[in-house]
Amino acid sequence: MDSGAGGSGTLSEIYQSARRLLLRARDGLARLEHLVSSSSSSSSSSSSFSSSSSSVNDLALAVKRDVTQIQSLCAEMDRLWRSIPSKPQRDLWKRKVEQLAEEVESLNESVSKHLVRQQKRMQEAKERTDLLESANGESSHILRIFDDEAQAMQSARNSSIMLEEAYATGVAVLSKYADQRDRLKRAQRKALDVLNTVGLSNSVLKLIERRHRVDKWIAYTGMVATVVVVYLFWRWTH
After folding, report:
1. So what's the pLDDT on residue 12?
2. Exposed, middle or buried: residue 158 (CB in 10 Å: 0-12, 13-18, 19+)?
3. 166 and 75 within one domain
4. pTM: predicted TM-score of the whole model, two decimal places
């Protein structure tokens, strides 16, 4: 006897509806497995991966809805077959409903595994994206450090060149002062010789000597000032 209760249809009608839903759910699971396999084997861009993930999720949820509906029909059939008077018919429908329930449960486990794997793949893709963004940010930071160090080294080289030029200028100035001092000494000796020859007084000779000392102090002062200027310039550039 195949009759059932209420307006839900007979037990046979409910069973046929459940079988059609099961076939559709199996077909959806097969397409889901093919889509997951295709998206896993291809190295697509992030936008393609996002589109593929969306398709996988939509298909998995559609299969889940069919599974839930079949489980609801199984619960309804489980209630109906118990009311069948004939024991052979009752046992037959019991086996059919239990077999259908086992197939649905197996299908439900497969879909759940696919959803878990898909969630894991999405998490891994997000971690890779975050890692790449972090690496790019770190690379930019390292490049900025290299640029700063390069600029600092160039500034140090420029300062060294300026210091060498200043030192060379100071040496040249000191050399000129030394030459002038030698010329002054030679001129003094010649003058003394001339004065001694013409018999000038000692007071004139003392005046010339004082002038020589003054000139010597001027030369020394100039050399010291030049050294101080070179040292201060070196400290300023460093």
Report:
1. 93
2. exposed
3. no
4. 0.46
